[in-house]
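To assess whether the prediction recovers the assembly geometry, we first specified each molecular entity separately, as shown.
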Amino acid sequence: MTRKGLMLTAAVMLAGTAAMADTADKKIALSNNYAGNSWRQAMLESWQRVTEKAVADGVVASADAFTTAENQATEQAAQIQNMILQGYDAIVINAASPTALNGAVKEACDAGITVVSFDGIVTEPCAWRVAVDFKAMGKGEIEYLATRLPEGGNLLEIRGLAGVSVDDEIHAGIGEGLAAHPNFKVVGSVNGDWAQDVAQKAVAGILPSLPEIVGVVTQGGDGYGAAQAFAAVGRPMPIIVMGNRQDELKWWAEQRDAAQYETMSTSIAPGVSTLAFWVAQQILDGQEVPKDLTVPFLSVTQDTLDQALKDTPEGGVTSVDYTLDDAKKVIGG
Amino acid sequence: MIRLALPVISLVVLICAVFWLQPRAMSYVGLNLLFNLAVPIALATVAQMVIIMVGDIDLSMGAFVSLIACITAAILPGNPALGAVMLLGCIAAYAALGALIEARQLPAIVVTLGMSFVWGGAAVLILPSPGGTAPGWLTAVMKAKPPLVPMAIIASIIIAAVAHLVVMRSAFGVRLRALGGNARAVSRAGRSTIALRAWAYALAGVFAVAAGMALVGLTTSGDANIALRYTLLSIAGVILGGGEFTGGRVSPIGAVIGALTLTLAGSFLSFLRLSPDWQIGAQGAILILVLAARLVVRQAEKRA
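The predicted structure of the complete assembly is given in tokenized form:
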């Protein structure tokens, strides 16, 4: 090796050790409860992309992702307990249940492991939470509809999976919005399970019994299915709030070009897993991090539609990969 | 005895494999982490075993345990009297189901499948969004740290012993097994098959209630979907433990060992770092492997 090369290596090593002295030997694990939809796939890909680079750069020793096979809280609790045995320094969790993992999370905390939950958060006080204000998301949908339809009208609500906290929170937010805008009325409500095919079936089933619908409030992953159901029976297309899925954005762009269709789209970016990763890294690095952090949700408007559609892979979800600086900004409030 | 040999061997092989993959598990804390979530599964498996023993099958086990978990987390801490009444009511409902199935000669598989939606709905009504807290005494029991042997192991041994005494050693247990083996003979002997089946379901209800409470003691909080996996796990556990669908032929100790084996199989696959896409398949493969081994053993027995 030349002298110059040696010096360069030394410099790189110095820079590396100075910035990341405390977490280079730390192991972080991702405990994920479900991988069966486009959002979760995008979330795992985002994790893979960002952590691979972080490991290569020597920021952390490893960052393995684990997904439970059956999306059951008891199974994920067992998975977390296995991670304790495997000696991870931090566990990043997207939880099947906000409460049912608390026992396992407490075991991890007691073993000195840093636990960061995101998206599907856990309520155990010893864990950190990177949460989205889902209530504000639901409320925002009604507020958007109020700007578009000042005279109000009948709405159809598509909910997510029954019994899951995200569904309750978005629903509660929609309730708040309705209280503030009493000229809107939800005349029907179905469970779309955040999946286009389920939503399409459910909406098609309830449509014949409904009066004219001016707007559809959704939770993401269900807008395209709802549009298909409306189109199939030839009813006037209401304003359907979308959820950043590629099929939804594509349909929206087509409708815009064909009939000046206007709507908005909002959802939590799947890349939030990488934000949780950086938050965990910062905690391991000894930084003071508040237990409750809020991430902004990602919205697509009529103006940003083309760009968003271009950036979103076929069958995927609009996303961003978060960086260490993003994490520091969120931590700083 | 030979009926028990295979489940025991499967469990020992798996334990050795897990220790080899993850030496850290070979400790007091490690064993507890490996097995504590198996305790409610073992209880649910014994409950399922009682149903299978009388020739039926219960497809509502997971939903019922979830409902119990919701009652335990949402109502029991604030209002112990009401909570206790509701839990007893659940056991009574199970007994009534048994009586109904026998009196109208309904297929249990259909009745319990239907009831699973009733239990699921009741759970969501009681606990609309995940929450609640476990009663302090329950957490204290489930998270107790007795000297030398971890709580999970002690609890498993107690469950196996109690189930064995009730089902295999008591006159009550003999009558229930007879109901599964030959219901007509029982009825000719002058016993009411309706009452007996009701008792069998009530006994299963007692174990299922214990399963839900133990689960909440571990998770410290409830969720309406918490135990949906238990339906299939409990059936697999009974079969893995040497039980048979034909009725009357079960092994309580085997059922508990079966539940432990299933739990351990999950950890084993996780330590192997197997991709989740393959995990369900691999779990199924382990089941088939054990059942195939059982067939081989039985054929060897017949030949001998």
